[in-house]
Amino acid sequence: MLRYLVGVLGLFLTVWTVNATDTRELVVYSGRSKGLVHPIIKQFERETGITVKVRYGNTAQLAVALLEEGEKSPADLFWAQDAGALGAVSKHGLFQALPESVLSKVPAKFRNADGTWTATSGRARVLAYAPERVKAEELPNSIFDLTDEKWKGRVGWAPQNASFQAFVTAMRVLKGEETTEEWLRGMKANGAKSYPKNTPIIRALAAGEIDLGLPNHYYLMRFKKSDSGFPVEQTFFGAGDPGNLVNIAGIGILKSSTHAEEVNTFVEYLLSPKVQQFFISEVFEYPVTEAGIPSAKLLPPDELIKLTPEINLEKLDDLEETLKLLREADIL
Predict the structure, then answer these.
(1) pTM over 0.85
(2) Which band of pLDDT confidence, cut at 50, 70 and 90, is reported for residue 295?
(3) How far apart are the first and last CA of the chain?
(4) Distance from C-alpha of 154 to C-alpha of 210, rounded to nearest angstrom
(5) How far, in Å, CA of 109 to CA of 240, rounded?
(6) Rg of the chain over CA atoms, in angstroms?
(7) Fewer CB within 10 Å: N-end or C-end of the chain?
(8) pLDDT tens sequence across 195-207
(9) Which of 226, 222, 211 is nearest to 282 (CA)?
(10) CATH annotation of 9-122+247-298
């Protein structure tokens, strides 16, 4: 159910029509996978009587499609996998302001300053480790400590993964190009082991291939759900460290939408206790409101905010320069 779809350009060339006269119908461009959001959308339809047509695809490519369509877009809402894509659409003035009833539910850190998009859930970068080989008191306090000789050949990362690339973009914003490049080259020189995505990092830790890893927080939680004794743990770096980046999935309402009541109902629904609980219990993502029953496996939102670096998430849209830097450092 939790498989994420990889968008391809052909997806955007699909021809389909929208009945603009149906005032109880919405069109959502979703960068979140069908396996994840379909149950939420179907429940929304049952509870409200509003029909939702969804165009699924890669978040970045959907953002490009919206920019190309402009005011003629059939989309009412853009539900993105990351803040960078939301920022790109926002910069072009395609979103309308969200109502205060929405903005008041979400901490300022997880919505943009203009109030045109808001997070719906959060994904934290963490430090995963093998407790049988690394004691808690030995763990590095900063992601920059991983270039130390002590960790040579012991760290796993996933440079091809979008969440890792977003983290590198955040480091560029927070610490500058020179410091980021120095860290990347230092990690490579220190024998960091590359994996295609996050799940293999967790498996490699359990298998003894590496002792530390840099995944998103929820991958280990999925392993722990089926095996509570799985031999991997995870933690955060020191407060404010770039390694603690929390990226978000979020949503914005297009100015071109003519369904004012319906779009607001949909956004409110995503922030409702039942949907926030779904993200907590089924997806293991962080809630962005106080709604829902807290999980002992997740930090409370206020504690998580204290650990995350101060960054404008919209600035994570500069992926092109990050990819260029990764190639120049011979990591991609």
Answers:
(1) no
(2) confident
(3) 30
(4) 5
(5) 13
(6) 20
(7) N
(8) 999 999 999 999 9
(9) 222
(10) 3.40.190.10
- Token digits of residue 156: 């796993």
Question: Residue 31: phi, psi to the nearest 5?
Answer: -85, -10
DSSP-derived letter for residue 177 is H
Reduce the DSSP state of residue 246 to 3 states and report it.
strand
* Topology adopted by domain 126-244+317-328: D-Maltodextrin-Binding Protein; domain 2 (3.40.190)
Determine contact, residues 315/87, Cβ cutoff 8 Å: yes
Tokens of 122: 């959060």
- Vertex 142 angle, CA 202 and 186, to 5°: 80
pLDDT-derived band at 79, boundaries 50, 70, 90: very high
d(CA 220, CA 80): 23
Instruction: Give just the sign of the alpha carbon dihedral 65, 66, 69, 70.
Output: negative
Which alpha helices (DSSP H) does the chain contain, by range? 34-48, 59-69, 83-91, 100-103, 162-175, 177-189, 198-207, 218-226, 260-270, 273-278, 301-307, 319-328
